[in-house]
Amino acid sequence: MSSLPNNLFVGSTIGSLKGINVKRENGVLKVAAKNLIRDKANLSSQHEIKTMNWSDEHRDEILIGSKSSVQSFSTINNALCNSFALPENECCGIFKSDEKIFVGITSGSLQSVSTSKNEPEWTVELKMNQCIERLRRCYVKTNIVATGGKNNDLKLWDLNTKQITFNAKNVKPDELQLQIPLWISDIAFCQQTESVSTCSRHGYVRLYDPLLPQRRPVFNAHQDDQVFTCITCAPAENQFLVGSGTGDLFLVDVRGKNPFVGKYKSFTGAVKEIICPPRQSLVFSVSLDRHFRIHDFSTRKLLLKEYLHTRLTTILPREPFVVEEIETVESEAEESTEPCIMSDHQTVIKEEDVKVTDNLFDKMEKIDDGSARKSSLRLKKKLPETDASEDGIETSQKPKRIKWKKNV
Amino acid sequence: MGDSLKAIKKTEARRSLGDTLLPAIDRKKTKHALRQENMKRLKQKDKDKKARRKSRRDEGAPALIPKTIESLRESDSTILNNVVDEDVIEEINCDLDEDEFSSYFRKEYEPRVLITFSEKPIKPSRRFAAQLCKIIPNCSRIGRKNTSIKSIVADAIKKRFTDVIVINEDRFEPNGLLLIHLPEGPTAYFRLSNVQTANKKQMKELTSHQPEVILNNFNTRLGQTVGRMLGSVFHYQPEFKGRRVITFHNQRDYIFFRHHRYKFLKGKAALREMGPRFTLKLQSVQRGTFDSKCGEYDWTIFGKRHEMETTRRRFFL
Question: What is the pTM of this model?
Fold first, then answer.
């Protein structure tokens, strides 16, 4: 099945990139994985993939931020195109704009390198003075990036002005007036709005709204004994998916008293990244136990898990994400190749299907049981008295009540 | 006359009941009879089995594989022997070459081990640790007092130790073994049981030769990691003159530790056990050095035992 296009890409700790083809055969999900980076020069613990992103809207080039270098991978040729050694430390966020690759570096800086020049020259775009663990770009306003790390709360930076636009404030200290510890491990922007959610290694999930004057989180939830490692926005509104270091995946709802609404099972190692493609009721996740898993978002059941032989760290879906529908039993080959895009939690009902069901209902026999008669009686009761007298039925008379004798 | 009258009265009484006969009494068999029956059945079964075996031998057919829990093990995609694809084998080899123990297997460093205890160790765990210290070459032992494991790890890295073993205890017996590989992890926690320390006679025979290490039945990828981890505690170059052998035998996810001295007799080898002996059961493998609060686990069974151990025929190592 190598001819089928890969709709997911997965990175691992030894720097191997795998293309995964997810398809639905007769309603059952199936997966075919293939190694894309193979040559031994690029496989080492120094090339551990930390983050991945698409380079532009065409979605034919993947930017790979690894421990020691930045690479770009072309999905058309299935080969690495460019490779730049990092000036220092590790990469924790990557994106491309105006022919420049922007790389967040864990020591606390955002540096850029231009792809057009032959010799890489790193220029410092932002200096943060604090270590960061994650850097992500906003979907709505592309000039805004969010950073966070250990003892470093969420900050939003404007790339044009190089200033902080939003500086989050820690929640109120506890009853002993001690500061709540900070260790942001992942940041997720909402697809439509500017609101940002973070998760921390001390078990906090927070939601910030930078448009409000308030700097403290709009929503704050805490789970004891959990180390949250990754967060994403769920397909449903006001919900997030949070993965933890002990191998738990929680569904967090902003509304209601108990924010941890659900749990997705079958993990035995730390969850490293979760992806929920829009318009799909599927949850894709990779974890350190070397498994790639697909859960159903609404039923929370495990649909599929695939062993991929290396510790997996990152996952990137093709956009727009489409699950190919293949039906081998039916002879209609033309329909089977046609991809079916799902709407929010429901499949799109085709017009032909509606016709077929209508015909089916027309053919069905009408069943006459007691219920129909009862309803007719009720109708008769409602009819005026004159009609009833003609039939000779005294409908106005009430049924006699049985009088119980008193116990003597 | 009186008897006949009584009989007539009885029959009349029965008629008045409507001629319904009462059911016959089902007498219980005596225990003896039941036992006899069972014995008979078993004897017959044995006979049949022998007859079948004889007929098979006469035909010259090969013996069948006995149905044990291990032979009926659930198929698992993580078992390394099942991998056929060459591409994948290459990747697995690369993964093994790049892990934290690869430098040990390349013989780049000699392991140095540090053994500590819980806060106030009881005598059995001290004795156990003392014997471990004698078995493992290049090993030292310190009392922990009030220091945290994290600070011990930090100090051990500075002093160039390569492994730290912490023996935990509960209810007056050692019950846990934490093995931390330095400087970059991983950390494994084992449940420790059936600790039998060596007696004086056995300890007299102990020599300071570097032992041979046998790792048995570590079949899955996780088992491979654990096996490499346990193996890398000992020196890579065994001194065959000492004829000491240490075995980590994995059977149904329980790792049995045995320590023997061998001798070649005519035709076969003779073994003498030297002790101590103990059993390990893996509880978790964590990435990096010990960090119980903020660590990320490669594999853990804490809190999901019922979810993971759904059949008796599923093993993880």
Answer: 0.80
